[in-house]
Every structure is written in C-alpha cells, then in structure tokens.
Write a structure and sequence with these properties.
Layout: E1 3-7, E2 13-18, H1 19-25, E3 29-37, E4 43-48, E5 58-59, E6 62-65, H2 72-84, E7 90-103, E8 106-118, E9 129-135, H3 137-146, H4 153-163
Parallel strand pairs: 3-8
Antiparallel strand pairs: 1-2, 3-4, 3-6, 4-5, 4-9, 7-8
Length: 165
C-alpha cells in the first residue's frame, strides 16, 4: 500500500494515509510533475494508455505521487526512471499549484510540484504510456490552440498555470 503525506495549502504535512484513501476523500497530497526538454529545446510528451487518466491524450512525461517522507528530488529521480527510463539529466524547479479534479472515479486533490528535466537520453516508456512525441515550443503552442483535445486536462493546467500557453 502506497502511503502519501496529507498536506495543507501551505505544503505542511498534517498526517500520512494511503493514496487510495487520499483519492476517496479528496485529501490534498503532493505529486511531482516534470516536462522533459532536450538540448535543442524540444519538449517530449507522452500519450497516456487507455486505462489511465487523460487516456489517449498527450501529457507531461513524468508525473506521480510523492511517497510519504520522500523528498521532491527523490520523487523526481524515481518517477523519471520509472516512466521514461531516464538516468542522466539535470533539472530545474519551476513552481507549485493545486489541481483539484474528479477523474476515473477518483477525487484528485494534488499539489503539483513542477520541474523541468533537461536530457538528450532516448525515453523508454512504461505501461502508463503508449507513445511519445517531440514538439518545438512553436508547435506546442499551435497544437494546444488548434487541437486542445489532443492534450490531457492536467497538461492544460500545467501549461496555463506555469507557461501561460
């Protein structure tokens, strides 16, 4: 059973509970999110598997719960390895914002902690994603406007909150 820290809006830990209980009750907890950018400035996004939230849509390539007692950087390294096979990268902290939504029967009340990962390593996807695609910033901005349904709700949230796209 995966345990998470339940936090207040100031990101202070109140107590720990299971991820399942956090989603049943809509309790605020932390998620690490990362955009992966190569040395040419291209963004790599992943297309979610059909059994995932934001199914068949492109989303941030690294994203997952921060386990109880785990640091942001530990979670970033773990999720980058699990979801993209990334072992060699540098990163930069971007910011935090709360996304509260109901999706696939869960009440997701997440504090998104966003980083950018910089690497030219070729991704190795896990079962959560079916494909990846690289976008230039220009392509990404154009696609978000012209074909918004190509991208998941959580990715739109990140783009609006942190990048003004």
């Amino acid at each position: 059973m995966e345990m998470v820290d339940i936090i207040n809006q100031q990101n202070e830990v109140l107590y720990q509970t299971s991820k399942e209980e956090a989603h049943q009750k809509g309790l605020l907890h932390r998620c690490i999110i990362a955009e992966v950018i190569d040395s040419k400035g291209n963004w790599t996004l992943v297309k979610q598997a059909s059994d995932r939230q934001d199914a068949d849509q492109y989303v941030s390539p690294v994203g997952g719960h921060i386990k109880a007692g785990e640091s942001e950087t530990e979670a970033l390294a773990r999720e980058a390895l699990e979801e993209m096979g990334l072992t060699s990268f540098t990163s930069k902290y971007i910011g935090k914002a709360i996304l509260n939504r109901e999706v696939i029967g869960r009440k997701e009340n997440h504090l998104f902690i966003l980083y950018e990962i910089y690497t030219d390593q070729t991704p190795t996807l896990n079962h959560e994603s079916v494909a990846y695609e690289k976008f230039t910033v220009t392509q990404l901005k154009k696609e978000i406007k012209s074909n918004p349904s190509k991208f998941g709700q959580a990715f739109h949230f990140v783009m609006e909150k942190f990048y003004n796209y």
